[in-house]
Amino acid sequence: MTDTTIMKTAVTPDPAPGDAAALNNPDAEGREDLIGLSREQLAGRLAAMGEKSFRAGQVWAWLYNRGIRDIDGMSNISKETRAKMKERFHISRPQVSRELTSADSTRKWLLKYRDGQEAETVYIPDDDRGAVCVSTQVGCTLTCRFCHTGTQMLVRNLSAGEIVGQFMVARDSYGEWPTPNETGRLLSNVVVMGMGEPLFNYDATVTALRILSDPEGLALSKRRITLSTSGVVPRMYDLGNDVGVNLAVSLHAATDDVRDVIMPINKKWPLKELMQACRDYPGASNARRITFEYIMLKGINDSDADARQLARLVRGIPCKFNLIPFNKWPGSDFECSDWARIERFSDILAEHGYSAPVRKPRGRDILAACGQLKSESQRERLTQLKARRAAGIDDEDHGETAAQ
Is the pLDDT at 401 greater than 50, yes or no? Predict the structure, then answer.
């Protein structure tokens, strides 16, 4: 994908799910999905049915506090009203095609949506709590050279309901309904770090974040939600003003020369612009530092000079680093930096006053670690494609593509 295409994606608004132009994820009977409607949209839909304003709060609580999956279960709503709602609405969840649990207790779900497309979601446990890593796109446009997801071409954006539904599937899996108190929940955080660039799917992502953080539903504090971007600078300003969740930036290089090669998006928004957007991000402070994610690539970005340049680059930004050992995936030419080199890199950043812990790799055995997500069906189809080619079978007979 060219840089021109990236630019168009970043500045062209995408329609909010469930707006007046289209129904939100209609089922085979043309009924609209309640999951993914904003609170305002839900109130408008129910008002159009003649319902009073309090009804939206009741339905919202059933959907997102109780996790109900059937309109008939809304017991404090009259049968007559429920019958009218069932004529117009349904409640969806992504279909769990596969659930895998790692030896380190990381759990990954391959989720299938109504049109057959798939995305992956991961739960990363940490003592008595943990983070759900959600995806915002099927595939990705960015083609970052170190990322497995980037080898899967972008198929489409996910809707707000499809994004929120990933967290709800995780809650289903762990039986964490109704919404527990903040101090008593396993699924305590959300990180928008899965498949895709969330700021290239801005409207749906922001709607999903508002649903996740609504105190009368899923009730995740904004300080427990972190969105990771590769550097879509104009949308970073919008994000800070619209929802103000924690910001993480996939940095991975201290110079434009290196970042241009491993992250082509840098050619559109180079480091100077990216760093200014970080300095301007609303709410960034020593109490709410921006996280710079930095994947450790042997011989590419891991020298002492890289570490010192990195410290100079972020000067004046309230920030911390998250050093990520590269997770090998099939077909990658990169290697992870040696452990001693990673520790030395971390020490140099610490000497300059920056926290730079090394992220413990999680879920490697189920390809759930950072940079390893890719729809399982895509992996399987690619394996089958290679086998057919080796046998001399014409790919056109199978409708396959060699794009990957």
Answer: no
